[in-house]
Every structure is written in C-alpha cells, then in structure tokens.
C-alpha cells in the first residue's frame, strides 16, 4: 500500500482560499467486477487576482490516472505531473471557466481502508469525509470548494439493479448486454466530502413525507436482501426527525428524495452525504429479537443526527477541517435535543453527561487532549473525537443557557439565513448569537480555544441567616499550551428547602451576575450572598450540567443524601446520589488496594435502595440512579496509580453489599416490571422498565449461590434487551460455569448468521472477568466468524476487550497490552482509520500503577517503532507517548 506519511502538520493559521474555484462536476462512473472507471468533467476557473504562474494542484490518494483533457484536448505531458497523491497542471487559462476531464481507474474490491469507493458485501459504496473523494478522482478535496454535481452510473443490472447518487434522480435506462444506467443531479452546491454513490442488489423500505411547505419527498431505506423489514423503526425515526426540525428550527428538507443505505462494512456510525446517507447497518436494522433498547435509542439518535446535518453541515458547511465542531458539535446538540423531546429530557441529559464524562473528560485530561477547535493536525480523521463532538455540543448548549431559548433561536435563525450556502467558521457562528442576542461572546469563545476540563470549586458559608456561595474556576496548567484564562461559565443552580421545593431567592450581594437560576461566572472567583432566614437551604449546583467542568463541592454528606432524595431537579438528584456512590467506591478501591478493611456506607446503600423503588420517578431515571459506576469510571475517580484488581474487587463487594441491603425488594420490583410475553414495544416508557430490570440484575446476581436462575432468565427472555442482560450477568458473575458456556453456545447457535448479534457475542466474551481472558480473546480471534477487515467485528472483539475489560486489558503482566498492540499492527495494514481509533484505548496508560505503566509503555513503544505504520496510527501513538 502506498503511504502518504510525510509527517506534515496542517495549521489553522495557514488557511487561505484555493487559487481556482470549481463550478460544476459531471461524473461518469462505470462499475464492473474488479474495476471501476471514473471520468470526471470538472468546470474550473482561476480566481480573481491569482497569478498566471500559479499551477492547479489537485489532491489524490492511491490514484491511477488513465487520461487527461483540457477543454476537449489531450493535455501534453510537459504541462502536467501526476503521482498517486497529486496532479499538478501548468499554463491553464488566465481568465474564464475551463473544463478538465480526468479519467482514473479504481479497484474497489481491494480497498480495505473503506475510504473512497469500496465494496461492502458486494455493494459498491463510498465514504468521502474527510479526504476520501481524492481516492476517486483528483480534486480540490477540501470543504471550502463547493460545486454542483451530476453523476451517471453504469453497471450490470444483475449485480447492481439499484443505482444511487446524491440529489434527485434525472433519468435511467438500459444499455444492452445486461448493463444499465442512472443519472442523478444534485442542484445544491456541496463540498466533495458529501459526494456519494451506491450500487448493488438491495431491498428497500419506501415511504413518503410532505414538508411544511408542501414538498412531497420520497423516502427510502435500502438494506441487504431480506432485511428491509428491520428498517421500519429507522424510517419512523427519520419522519419524526423531519417534523422536529421543521417545528423546532424551521428547517425543511430540500430535495425530492431522501435515501439511506445500510451497509455492513463501515468505519463509523453513518455519513450525511447530501440526499444519500450511508449508514453502518448497526444504526438502521432493528427488531426486538436482535436489538436492545440501547440499539433502538442509538438508531433514533444517529438517524436524526445525519438528517439534521442537511442544514448544519451540508447547507452550511465548514470552511476548513479545523471548524469541524461547527457542524458536529451543533448537530450533536440538535440530536440530543431531539431525543430529549422524543423521550425523557432528564434521562437524555443524564445519559449525555455520563457519556461526556466517560469519553470526553479522559480525552481532555490525557495525552490526546485538544481544543474543541484544534489549531493543528497531522491526520484529520483522528479529530472526529469526543471533544469535537460532545464537548462541542456542550458549548452550543452553554450558548443556549446564556442567551435563553428565544434569543438562542433568533441566533440560529440568523445563522441559517446569513450563511446558507457558505463554508463558515466558528467566528461566523458566534457572531450570529452576538448580534441576535445583543451579547459579547468574546470571553465565551475561549471554550473553543483552550483545551482541558476546568475545575469548578464551590464552597458554602452559612451565618446570620445568610448563605454565601463561593465559586472558583481553575483550568489546570499544561492544557496543550492553549491558555488558562477564565471562561464565561453559566452555572445553573437552585436552593432547596427540606421539603424539596426550590426557594425563590434573589441574591442580596455578590460579584457575579445572576439571571434567574443562572450564575454567570466570568472571573476566576466570585461570591454570591442570599438572605435565607434561619434555615440553611440545600445547594443544588451545576444543575443539568450547565457547564462541562469537574465540580468540587465540599458539600456535607447529609446535604447530598437529602438532595438525592428530594432535589426537584431530577439531574440534581441523580448527581447527588452518583457523587455519594462514586465516593464510596473510590474509598473502597483505595482500601482494597492498601489491604485495609472495606466498608460500604449504609446510608448510601439505603439511598440506592430507595431510589430503585421510588415510584414517583420514571423507571429509566431510577435505572440510571441505581447502576453502580463501571470499573473504568471508578478508575477515573481514583485518578492516578490505578490498580484495576482492587477496583474490580471493590465493585464486586459493592454489588454484594447492595444486594444484602435490598436484594429481596429488588427481586420483587423486578417481577412487577416484567412484561407479558410477546408484549414488546420499543417506546421510551417500556424501555425504561426493561432498563430498571436490567440495572438490578447484576445486583441480584451477585447474591446468587448458583447460576441456574440466570440461565433460566436467559432462556425465558422474549427480546434481546432481556436476553443480553441475562447472559451478561451470567458470564460476568459465573464466567467459569457450565451454564455460562451453555448460554454462549445457545446464543451463537441461534444468531450465527446475524452479524450484528454476533458482534454482541464477541464483545460479551471479551469483557468477561476471567484470569485467562487474554488467552480467551486470542481464541476468539481464531474463530471462523472473526473478521479483522470488518470494522464492527474488529471493534466488537478488540475494542470490547480494550475498553470494556479494564482488568484484562491492563493485566499486570502486560499480556493485554501486547495482544491489543499486535492486533493494531495487523489492522493498520488493512484499515488505518479503525486501527487509529482503537489505539485511543491506550490514552490513560499513565494513570495506572508503576508496573502497568512500564509494560504499557513498552508495548506502545514497540508498536510505534514498527516500520510502515500509517499516518493515522502513528499520529495517535506519537501523541499518546508524548
Ligand atoms: N460526518 C460523519 C463522520 C465522518 C468521519 C470521517 N472520519 C458522521 C457524522 O458525524 O455524522
Ligand atoms: Zn455528525
């Protein structure tokens, strides 16, 4: 394979527009087994003021040039240089448009990177973001080059009866000799990363949608043969997304068709190509027997996310890849809001915050740290990160908190109006809110530049009928050298009385502005004073996680316990309880590690039991409240010198202690939540009941003397959510039992031909808490169903182990690290992007204890020292070791 690793760093400050503009692209794509011929007719024009001597430099990647014409004439060899990575043309017209015809020949079958044009289970498909179009033809392959496209596809009717591209269908017909064609026209100018085509033998689920202004849109979801029935929920989610964007943001769809194609080999979740979204089939195909409630929620979110990109990403795109959060952070914010409206707002918010802390915080506090808007990169694909996406969404949410709903909407309206058709920047975006909101966001914009998680320290003083809150913000030093200046932090809060009511108190003094329930902290520290009378209120601070910070609040234990019981803000209740439980587990892990006696706080266990049974709360919220933090989460609370064995024992002990405190009640509660056989519905309320049942299962399982009841539950399960919960408890609590083996064999036997369920089977085993886990994952690698070339399967086994089995991956003898490193080396030769993504599992290696640090570093250095690593993987390894 050709490598393009020249070690080059791309810098934001070097941005300048292209010398040439592209007006239109006409593509002819001839697909045949073994080869694809591409003919691109590109209308270009030298921009005003660009010197005659400036050559046209087009990007390529592993390309083979088979022909080149300028305005209909073959280009003489002395006027161009072509390498697989570049096409340079000289002596081009000084003024006016000209036409370049470029012919390339591709080999989609051998394209294992899954970037550009490739084949997935026989289906021709494309992935062009970020820099995949240059693997199809030579082009100015960057987001600020916008053009209209027309695409003609030709293929055998037998292998590819379905021919799709961006935009609207224009014509189709027969070519004789078993060949046929289709022409697609996309009237909306777009950057090349949104180009897509699909050709194959696919089934479809069809539907229609009429937009608010009366446009009739034909919707279709294409799937592998025989599976279109599993796309029904995705279709429903799509229509709900279309209505929601009209109502919430006034955004309508703008083509006559909207097509989604589900394919099995895909590097990420999905891709928002204009009018032709391509999806990992994991985010389309569902039925109760094969998909969990989590899968249903995931499909709904990703369908919405890609659809919402039509406005935030496609109609308004990014000027350069440094602005990636402009489309990703904003679109995540939009999909989070959609899910909150469709399901439960507090449950959605808690899940998002939980995800942020699990993924983004470690990234922001480790070697892969970068600002939401980075200023340099070596490989852009490595910047599709939790920081750009999830923290990016938090920044949009903070703008909404600062402006309030109405002014926020006005800012969004202005953004859509002013920048439709543009390749925009974060500055453009912020300016819209400044103008519509009548506010200066200069200080706020530091959130885009300064990396790291700020610490917010809150302390309370109560005297003479007055409560003084002191707030202090601090950004730890060394944050990627991007500055540590104070942020504008919106801090939502409430003062709660002993009956669980918010007190309506205005501050009587203070040096921070307070607007309603939001404190605007803009200095490093501030104090705010409230006249409370003689009773000290409970301080519920940082409600709804109104700023992405680490909160240090020296709150009294009894106040936390009270808030866990009666904070009228559901997020506040969850946080109060979670903080108590986290503290309990951290203490237990430290005691385990030091060989001290471990005790689990009775009052906290009692609070967990009460929350589980609190009928006033929706079951989904109770499920989130009673789920003990995972081992990785406890590790983060410990912070440094992590001993995963001690954490594992501490968590086990906590499950048993919780079972001792409430086991009988949990059993009874679980049976009241059970649904009659065959009554499955994926709606949020039903899913919430199943979630609570599942959340209690590990607790109950920890008290079982025999695995038999778990096997019984597994066998009786009527849907995948219950089935997976049962088999997970079985494998995690009784890994060596004959029952666990029997269940795994039965699961395999039943779902052997279902790729998405088999992924779960691999992951489940990769997360088992056994001493010989490294040997076990090695055996799974040799399993006939393991396929390193399929990203879902690779993630299921390698990612399942590296990120889902803390104790196994971080085994003290280093075998876990070495096994993963070896897999990364193999995978890198096939698919650098997926290898690089999996390599981020090493990002917290410095937080472990000294023996583990030593073996992790050795494994990383050995891998980093290998020859011919991709730019993707070596970029991650270099930064991880820095
Ligand atoms: N925009 C794509 C991600 C592309 C990733 C390229 N490495 C999916 C999304 O965020 O919606
Ligand atoms: Zn996105």
Which helices and strands, and how do they pair?
Elements: E1 10-11, E2 20-32, E3 35-46, E4 56-59, E5 65-70, E6 73-74, E7 80-83, E8 86-89, E9 97-106, E10 116-120, E11 123-127, E12 147-156, E13 162-165, E14 168-176, E15 179-190, E16 197-200, E17 203-210, E18 216-223, H1 232-249, E19 257-263, E20 270-271, E21 276-280, H2 293-308, E22 317-318, H3 324-342, H4 345-364, E23 376-377, H5 386-403, H6 405-419, E24 423-424, H7 426-437, H8 446-449, E25 455-463, E26 466-474, E27 489-496, E28 507-510, E29 513-515, E30 518-521, E31 525-531, E32 538-541, E33 550-553, H9 557-566, H10 570-594, H11 602-613, H12 619-626, H13 631-638, H14 644-673, H15 684-702, H16 708-716, H17 720-733, H18 738-751, H19 755-766, H20 773-781, H21 791-804, H22 806-809, H23 815-830, H24 832-839, H25 850-864, H26 871-881
Parallel strand pairs: 2-12, 18-19, 19-21, 22-24, 25-33
Antiparallel strand pairs: 1-23, 2-3, 3-9, 4-8, 5-6, 5-9, 7-8, 10-11, 11-16, 12-15, 13-16, 14-15, 17-18, 20-21, 25-26, 26-31, 27-30, 27-32, 28-31, 29-30
(3S)-3,7-diaminoheptanoic acid is lined by residues 129-130, 268, 270-272, 305-306, 309, 328, 381, 384.
Main attributes of the structure:
882 residues; alpha+beta; Immunoglobulin-like; 5 domains; eight-stranded mixed β-sheet; disordered N terminus; binds (3S)-3,7-diaminoheptanoic acid
């Amino acid at each position: 394979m050709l490598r393009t690793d020249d070690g080059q760093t791309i810098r934001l400050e070097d941005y300048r527009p292209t010398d040439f503009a592209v007006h239109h692209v006409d593509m002819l794509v001839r697909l045949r087994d073994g080869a694809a011929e591409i003919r691109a007719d590109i209308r270009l024009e030298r921009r005003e003021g660009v010197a005659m001597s400036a050559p046209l430099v087009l990007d390529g990647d592993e390309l083979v040039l088979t022909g080149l014409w300028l305005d209909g004439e073959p280009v003489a060899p002395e006027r161009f240089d072509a390498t697989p990575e570049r096409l340079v043309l000289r002596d081009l017209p000084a003024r006016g448009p000209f036409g370049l015809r470029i012919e390339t020949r591709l080999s989609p079958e051998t394209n294992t990177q899954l970037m550009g044009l490739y084949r997935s289970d026989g289906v021709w498909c494309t992935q062009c973001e970020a820099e995949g179009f240059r693997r199809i033809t030579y082009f100015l392959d960057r987001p600020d080059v916008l053009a209209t496209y027309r695409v003609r596809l030709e293929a055998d009717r037998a292998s590819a009866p379905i021919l799709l591209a961006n935009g609207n269908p224009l014509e189709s017909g027969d070519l004789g000799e078993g060949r046929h064609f289709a022409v697609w026209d996309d009237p909306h100018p777009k950057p090349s990363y949104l180009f897509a085509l699909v050709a194959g033998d696919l089934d479809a689920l069809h539907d229609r949608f009429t937009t608010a202004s009366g446009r009739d849109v034909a919707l279709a979801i294409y799937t592998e043969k025989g599976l279109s029935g599993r796309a029904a929920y995705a279709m429903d989610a799509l229509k709900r997304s279309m209505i929601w964007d009209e109502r919430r943001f006034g955004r309508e769809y703008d083509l006559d068709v909207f097509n989604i194609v589900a394919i099995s080999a895909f590097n990420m979740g999905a891709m928002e190509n204009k009018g032709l979204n391509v999806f990992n089939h994991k985010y389309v195909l569902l039925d109760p027997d094969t998909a969990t409630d989590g899968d249903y929620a995931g499909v709904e979110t990703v369908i919405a996310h890609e659809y919402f990109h039509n406005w935030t990403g496609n109609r308004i795109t990014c000027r350069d890849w440094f602005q990636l959060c402009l489309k990703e952070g904003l679109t995540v914010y939009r999909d989070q809001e959609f899910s909150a409206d469709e399901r439960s707002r507090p449950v959605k918010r808690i899940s998002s915050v939980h995800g942020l802390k699990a993924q983004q915080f470690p990234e922001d506090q480790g070697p892969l740290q970068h600002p939401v808007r980075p200023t340099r990169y070596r490989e852009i694909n490595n910047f599709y990160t939790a920081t750009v996406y999830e923290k990016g969404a938090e920044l949009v949410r903070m703008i909404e908190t600062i402006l309030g709903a109405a002014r926020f909407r006005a800012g969004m309206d202005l953004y859509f109006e002013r920048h439709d058709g543009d390749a925009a920047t974060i500055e453009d975006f912020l300016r819209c809110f400044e103008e519509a909101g009548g506010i200066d966001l200069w200080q706020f914009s530091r959130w885009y530049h300064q990396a790291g998680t700020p610490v917010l320290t809150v302390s309370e003083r109560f005297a003479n009928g007055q409560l003084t809150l002191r707030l202090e913000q601090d950004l730890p030093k060394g944050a990627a050298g991007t500055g540590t200046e104070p942020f504008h932090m919106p801090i939502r809060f409430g003062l709660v009385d002993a009956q669980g009511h918010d007190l309506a108190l205005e501050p009587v003094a203070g040096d921070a502005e307070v607007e309603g329930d939001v404190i605007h902290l803009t200095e490093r520290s501030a104090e705010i004073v409230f006249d409370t009378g003689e009773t000290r209120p409970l301080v519920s601070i940082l409600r709804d996680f109104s700023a992405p910070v680490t909160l240090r609040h020296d709150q009294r234990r009894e106040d936390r316990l009270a808030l866990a019981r009666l904070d009228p803000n559901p997020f506040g209740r969850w946080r109060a309880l979670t903080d108590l439980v986290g503290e309990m587990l951290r203490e237990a892990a430290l005691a385990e590690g030091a060989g001290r006696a471990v005790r689990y706080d009775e009052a906290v266990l009692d609070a967990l039991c009460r929350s589980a049974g609190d009928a006033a709360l929706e079951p989904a919220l109770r499920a989130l409240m009673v789920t003990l933090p995972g081992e990785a989460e406890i590790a983060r609370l410990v912070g440094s010198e992590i001993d995963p064995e001690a954490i594992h024992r501490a968590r086990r002990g906590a499950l048993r202690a919780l079972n001792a405190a409430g086991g009988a009640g949990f059993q009874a509660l679980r049976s009241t939540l059970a649904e009659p056989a065959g009554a499955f519905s994926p709606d949020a309320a039903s899913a919430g009941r199943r979630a609570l049942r599942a959340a209690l299962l590990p607790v109950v399982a920890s008290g079982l003397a025999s695995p038999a009841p778990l096997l019984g539950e597994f066998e009786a399960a009527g849907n995948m959510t219950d089935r997976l919960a049962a088999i997970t408890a079985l494998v995690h609590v009784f890994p060596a039992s004959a029952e666990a083996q029997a269940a795994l064999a039965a699961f395999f036997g039943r779902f052997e031909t279902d790729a998405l369920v088999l992924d779960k089977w691999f992951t489940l085993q990769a997360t088992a808490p056994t001493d010989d886990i490294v040997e076990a994952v090695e055996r799974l690698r040799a399993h006939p169903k393991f396929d390193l070339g399929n990203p879902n399967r690779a993630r299921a086994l390698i990612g399942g182990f590296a990120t889902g089995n803390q104790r196994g991956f971080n085994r003290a003898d280093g075998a876990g690290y070495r096994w993963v490193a070896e897999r990364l080396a193999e995978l890198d030769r096939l698919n650098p992007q997926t290898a690089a993504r999996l390599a981020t599992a090493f990002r917290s290696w410095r937080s472990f204890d000294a023996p583990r640090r030593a073996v992790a570093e050795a494994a990383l250095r050995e891998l980093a020292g290998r020859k011919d690593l991709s730019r993707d993987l070596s970029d991650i390894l270099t930064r991880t070791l820095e």
